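INFO  loader      accepted 1 record
INFO  loader      residues=328
INFO  predictor   begin
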Amino acid sequence: MKKFLFACVLLALAAGIGWQFRDKFRHADAALMLYGNVDIRGVDLGFRVAGRLLEVCQDEGDAVQAGDLLARIDDEPYAHELARAEAELAAAQADLRMKQSGYRKEEIEQARAVLEESRVVAKDAERAYQRQTKLVGGGGTSQQNLDSAQAASDEAQQRMKVAEAKLKLLEAGFRAEEIEAAAAQVAQARAARETAALRLADTELKAPSDGIVLTRVLEPGAIVQAGTTALSLSLEHPVWVRAYVHERELGRVPPGTRVLLAVDGQPDRQFHGKVGFVSPRAEFTPKSVETPELRTSLVYRLRVVVEDSDGSLRQGMPVTVTIAPTPQ
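INFO  predictor   done
INFO  writer      dumping tokens
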């Protein structure tokens, strides 16, 4: 009886040890099966400018390619804005050219003529003053006439100095600071023109990539604000599968690992993929993909990029991920 009990204890111990180290005895060359779901990215599209919705070119379910026109708003206000910006740029450029070229030759010649005239007037006024100076000593004129002649001479001299200064100013041209300010005005006007052109282009909403229109939110005639969603688009690329792997199998799925994918709706069709990302953090298995074996287990999320998706994979589809056996 004791021998029988001893044998039972040994068998129980052996079974317990075998259960604890069951993974050690698994064949390393066995295929690894993981479970997950299709993850297709979507995007809500809207205009960057406000306005009245003029046209919606696509409807729900329509397949679109990158660059296809989806909708557009009334562009007339933005076309006027661009025209005004272009006119302001042309005016700023003309002002810059004028200041870089300096004053016209005709203006300089005119200033030179005014200077010569002022010199003649100044000489005449000086002679009149000298005559009055000689006459006042002999009693031939009054002191008042002498004072008036002196004032006229002084005024003529000042006018001549003003004419000389104006001629020098015209000959020197505009200051470097004025030219720099004009160049800055041109740069500002050019930036305003580019902004207006961008706002005009933003009146057209185009598909950022290939996809399928999921939702048509707005209809023509609606007044939309900048950023308001007009359509929702499901992107065809990339198509991912979000799967989970237990810690003990983590070493078999490094980034770049090739896998086979299968969905319940196409049991005879296999898709090919590659592991693109493995989460550095453990988490509990989501309810949508948990298996009895992984229930309450901590797993690591990984992302598989589907390389040959044909458009039949839909968001949330259950997927079985098969990893080839490890070579011996």
